[in-house]
Structure formats: C-alpha cells, structure tokens
Amino acid sequence: MQMTNAAILAVALLVVGAAVGGGRNPAQPQVDMEKKLAGLEQELVAAAPKGDVTFLDRVLAKEYRLTGPDGAVTDKKAELQKGKAGNPAYEPIAATDLQVNVYGDAAVLTGRRAYQVGGNEFRFTSVYVLRDGRWQCVARQVTSIPKP
User: What's the CATH number where 71 sits?
Assistant: First the structure.
C-alpha cells in the first residue's frame, strides 16, 4: 500500500499533535484560574489596610456590596473611603478553608480568615464576575466566628 505525501503529512501531524498535547492536563486552565482568583481575593482584603485605593477602584465593581458581620451593608464608595484612611494594623492573615468555584464568567470564593489585630476570625463569601478580561468583585459577605 502506497501513501501519498498528503497522507504521510496528515499522519505525521496527528502523531506530533498527540505527543505534544498528550501530556496536557485539561483541568489545568481551571486550576490556574482558581489560583489567580485566590490571589486576587488576598490582594483585595489587603488593599484597604494598605491604603491601595487604586487597586480597590479597579477590582471592586461599581455595584459592589459588602454585608459585614454586624449586618451593615456598604458599597464601593464606602470601601474606597476606608481604603483612603488605611490601617496596616488590620492586615489579614491568608485565608484557610478556601474554596474557589468558577462558573464561566462568575466565581464564588468561600473561606475562613483571621486578622492580626484582635485575632478575630470570619467566614466569608466573595462573588466575582469576569468583565472585559478582568475579574471584579461584585459582592462579599462576612460572618464573625465567635471565640470559644
């Protein structure tokens, strides 16, 4: 059986494609996105204590709402005001129990976070949406964990 040059080329491309793509993990882009969002969340909670209002303004969506542990609701404008004041003493400790779930152009992050001052711990839920190629936080909810 004789193969044409076109057939040989097609088989060669299939073999090379399988060899190159065979080591790929189809879940890798999802894992990378989850890591990116986890990092973004850490940067977000650290931005206000550092006074980084440029970062806050970029990452908080215009319709952003935060429901705090006391049930009070604040918006982006209030968060930017807090950011302008800054307070490095309230730098957060990295989240534990972090779960990142991506649903297309939306993501929900949940976890537990402590703060260096006072040792207060909280459970949180953050909701992000992908807009114009960047993730923005549209909502956060924080619940205080009572000390034993």
Answer: 3.10.450.50
Closest among 54, 117, 48 to 79, alpha carbons compared: 48
Give the range of the structural domain holding residue 138, as residue numbers without chain letter: 27-145
Tokens 């839920």 sit on residue: 125
The ranges of the chain with pLDDT < 70 are 1-28, 89, 116-117
Could you tell me if residue 37 is inside a domain?
yes
pLDDT digits (tens, 9 = 90+) for 83-99: 888 877 677 777 889 99
Let me know if 93 is exposed, middle or buried by CB neighbors in 10 A (0-12, 13-18, 19+): middle
Number of domains comprising the chain: 1
8 found inside a domain: no
Tens digits of residue pLDDT in 97-111: 999 999 999 999 999
